[in-house]
Structure formats: C-alpha cells, structure tokens
Amino acid sequence: MRSIDRAFFTLAVLLGLAGMVLGIQMGMAHDFQLVPVHTHINLVGWVSLALFGIGYRVGLAKGGALAVVHFWIAAAGAILLPLGIYLATTQQQEAVVIIGSLLVLASMLLFLVNVVRAWNTPAG
C-alpha cells in the first residue's frame, strides 16, 4: 500500500461522516442511548486514524510493510470497537468490544513502533 497516509485519512473521513450521521440521527430522535458508540466512532475512527495518517504523511512514523499491518489492525479496531459498544449496550454482548479494544491498543502500539523506527531512520 503505497499511500498509507491517504488510506488512513480516507478511512478517517468515512468514519467521521458515520459518526456525524449517527449523532444527527440521535439528536433528531431525542434518543441518546448510543452516545458512547458515536463518541468512539469519532475519537477512534476520525481523530486517531486521521492523526495516524498525518503522522505517516509528515514522516513522524516510518511507512512500509509494518505500516500496512498497522492500517489493517487500526481499521478493524476502529470498526469493531464502536460496533462492540453497540452490541454491549443493546444486547449485553461484550465479546466484540473486547476484541475491538485490544485491536485499538495493538494499533497504537504499532504506531509507536513506527514512530520509533522513524527516529532511527537517517534523514534523506
């Protein structure tokens, strides 16, 4: 995946739009039960993924194969975490939120690894 920064940013925008739509729908229905879902779509999906994309774009994190692995783990976590919160809130099913949380944590750890790798790369 050549443009890892664009992949992160494109998915961030899509999830940001999903979070906005959910927020508008909740407001119109005056039903705010899913605020935690809305919040995590926006913070993990929009904000974290956008910051990852910016980090790769400006060279704060090293790209390459490990960045691609990072993208797929981050994407899965950003989708599964809010979905899991929805399932835990509406159906008392918690397995997906646990998996999503662990993927989000793994994603941040991989980003840290890529940031440190960028420090150890000579400027060129």
Order of helices and strands: HHHH
Assign the structural class, choosing from mainly alpha, mainly beta, alpha/beta, alpha+beta, or little secondary structure. Answer: mainly alpha
Please work out how many helical segments DSSP would assign. Answer: 4
Model regions low in confidence, pLDDT < 50 over at least 5 residues = none
Overall 3D shape: elongated
In which range does the helix fraction lie?
A: over 70%
**Residue fraction in strands:** under 5%
Calculate the mean pLDDT score and round it.
95
| Alpha-carbon Rg, integer | 16 Å
| Cα end-to-end separation | 21 Å
The overall strand count is 0
Q: Major β-sheet, in short?
A: none
List the helices and strands and how they pair.
Blueprint: H1 4-29, H2 35-57, H3 65-91, H4 95-119
Helix pairs in contact: 1-2, 1-3, 2-3, 3-4
Structure notes:
The chain is mostly helical and 124 residues long. The protein is built from four helices and no strands. The chain has helices at 4-29, 35-57, 65-91, 95-119. Helix 1 (4-29) runs parallel beside helix 3. The longest helix has 27 residues, at 65-91. The protein is elongated. The protein starts with a helix and ends in a 5-residue tail after the last helix. 34% of the residues are buried.
Q: Can you tag this structure with a few keywords?
A:
mainly alpha; elongated; 124 residues; 81% helix
Summarize the structure.
By secondary structure, this protein is mainly α.
